[in-house]
């Protein structure tokens, strides 16, 4: 009986801890998760915020057409895009062979 | 109910609660894809075994060999259903894990997967009910007919998902090219770099054309129109588009290197 209660307590604790861990992951991944996983989508790979954190980026001068944008591309962005392109796979579906 | 019994039931329920999420999280899209490869291999092997059994029966028409044809045939049919099932599960998880896929496509695929998984269960019951060679032939033909139905809707939408992803990559290349060109146009002695960017631009245009062609092929993936061939054609266009994009990326990379060196 005592063993049973201890087992229940242990499992309930594991459930509680794993629940907290899963909830805790969300804010950490939060807004940056999409950028890290797929920076090339839309303008994500070239926005100003991301560029500010990248060293060795090419920055457009103030003579750009709209003048105020600070658009950057880094070698890191290019390398990541290459990796994504090489990872694209388009698999055919098999078929049943004749009897 | 005594306390001991209640405690035992509570323990079981808690165990189930603990194990359930573990099993759900265990299967990722890449695991599901591997499971599909495995199921595909098993299906090929099962069909070979069935063919061998038929050869044996043709050489020696005993009851035992006849039964072997029926058993291996049923096994081969189950294996082919396992293959389709694994493919559908992979497609389901693939779209579920990708936050960039438009919701309408995602919902269409997941609905089709659910419907078709139900159809597979019904077909399994029919396979289990086969008792002789005639029934085996009838069920085989039925499954061949259903096979296209099971995969065509999901294949078409899956193709559209790939088109969406490929378009995003092409757009990113396009934006990178434009950004680099704007920088280069403000530089002196920029001919060599502009040449690289022109080559990249040309590849990007080719990629977009091939992606558009793939979209057209996927749009024709219907039961009435050789769906697997159309799907395969769409895939081929996307493979060429991927080559175009990798080539464009190479030119952009070279242009970037020249800008860094000369800047």
Structure description:
The complex is a heterodimer of chains A (99) and B (263). Chain A is mainly alpha-helical. Chain A has a domain at 38-86. Helices cover 55% and strands 4% of the residues of chain A. Chain A has 3 helices and 2 strands. In chain A, strands 1-2 form a two-stranded antiparallel ribbon. Mean pLDDT of chain A is 54; it is low at 20-56 and 60-71. Chain B is mainly α. Chain B folds into 2 domains: 27-131; 153-263. Chain B contains 7 helices and no strands. The radius of gyration of chain B is 26 Å and the shape is elongated. Residues 20-25 of chain B have low confidence and may be disordered.
The structure class of chain A reads mainly alpha
Unreliable spans of chain A: 20-56, 60-71
Distance between the termini of chain B: 82 Å
Quaternary class: heterodimer
Q: Would you kindly provide a brief summary of this structure?
A:
The complex is a heterodimer of chains A (99) and B (263). Chain A has 99 residues and is mainly α.
What features would you highlight for this structure?
heterodimer; A: 99 residues; mainly alpha; 2 strands; 55% helix; elongated; B: 263 residues; 2 domains; 7 helices; 89% helix; 0% strand
Task: Reconstruct the topology from this structure.
The complex is a heterodimer of chains A (99) and B (263).
Chain A: H1 2-37, H2 48-53, E1 58-59, E2 72-73, H3 75-86
Antiparallel strand pairs in A: 1-2
Chain B: H1 3-26, H2 29-59, H3 63-97, H4 103-128, H5 133-185, H6 191-219, H7 227-262
